Amino acid sequence: MNSVSYLFLGFVLASTATRWLLSLRQSSHVSAHRDQVPAPFAAQITLDDHRKAADYTVARGRLGRLDIALDALLLLIFTLGGGISYLDSLWGRLDWSQPLRGTAVILSTFALTSIVGLPLSLWSTFRIEARFGFNRMTLSLYCKDLLKSWALGLAIGTPLIFIVLFLMERAGTAWWMYAWLLWLGFSLLMTWAWPALFAPLFNKFIPLKDATLAERINALLSRCGFASEGVFVMDGSTRSSHGNAYFTGLGRHKRIVFFDTLLGTLTPDEIEAVLAHELGHYSLHHVRQRLVLSFVLGFVAFAALGVLAKWPGFYTSLGVQDPSPHAALLLFMLALAPFTYFLTPLGAWWSRRHEFQADEFASQHSNAHELGVALTKLYKDNATTLTPDALHSAFYDSHPPALVRIANLERLARSAG
What we know:
The protein is mainly α. The chain is built from 17 helices and four strands.
C-alpha cells in the first residue's frame, strides 16, 4: 500500500464511521422522544402511531447499520483486497477480446454485490416491513420483480458498458467527452422511456376513473399552465401500503401518478394540495435544475476518469496490478462514493430548499393548510418519525423535518388567509 491507498482507506473508514454514528444518533434521539407526540400533531396522531413510527425508524436503522458495514467490506474486498483483479483473471481464462471481457468483469462485480446484499433486502421486506404492517408482497412477486430487475439491468447496462469501454479503448484521448455525451443521451432517453416502457413491467397504471377528481385536477393543471399525458393510478397496494405521488417523463410526455393507497387516504382537497406541491417542482424548474446539475457533475466525473485512467498509480493504489479500461471504470465507480460522501449535506440542503419553495407554490395555487393535513396523514400512514435527530436530518433528509415543515405551511396558510 502507498499514500494514495491509505488516503482511500481513510476516506472509506471516515465515511463508514460517520454513517454509523449518524444512524446511532437518529435511533437514540427517536427512542428518547418515543413516548410523547409533538404538540402540533397531538390531534391527528395517536401515541400508539407515534411509538410505531419510532420503533419502525429504529428497526430500519439497525438493519441500515448492517448494510453500512457490508458496503464498506465489499468495497475494500473489491479494491484493496484484490477482488477486481481476481474476477479479471477468472474471465481472462475464456480468452475473450476487449471490451467483451471488461463488460463481463463489471457486470459480474455488480451481480455479486447484488447477491451478497440480497439477505438484507429479504429481511427488510419480509420481516421489518411485514412486522409494521406495510409489506403486501408475496415471495413469488418479490422473486419476479428481482428477476425482471436483473434482466432489465442486463439488457440496458450491457450495451452501455460495452460502448463506454469501446470508446475508452479506441476513441483516443477525447474518449471521455464522447462517453459523457453517450451517458447524457442515455439519461434523457431513460427519463422519457421509463414511464412509458419499463415501469409497466412492474406495476399497472390505469387512468384516473373518478371523474369529479379528474376534473378538479385538470382545473389545477390549467391554472398552473401544466400539460401532461394524463393522470394515472398505480397499483402500489400490491407491494406495500406506503402511499406516494409523483411526476415522471419529459416534455409533452409527462404524466402524473398517484399510488392507489394514497387516493384511499386523502380527501379531494388534500389530493389537490399534494398535486399543487408537485406541480411547483416543475413550474419552478427544480427538475430541470437537477438534470442540469447531474449533467455538469457527470462531465466533471468523466473528465476526472479521463485523467486517472492514464495514471498507473491509480490502479496499483486500489488493488489492481494490470491497468485496463474496465479496471479504470470499475475502480472509479467504486471509489467515488467515499470521496464524495461528505458532500451529501449540500445535496440534502438543496433538496429541502426546493421543498419549501414547492410548498409556497402550493399555497398560492391551492391550500397550504390542506397540504399540511395531507402530509400529517402521510407521516402517520408511512410511520415517518416526527422527531428526527437534527444532525442526521441535516445530513440526509431531502425533505424538511415534519415539525419545521408543518409550521411553515401553517404560516403560509395564515398569510393566504
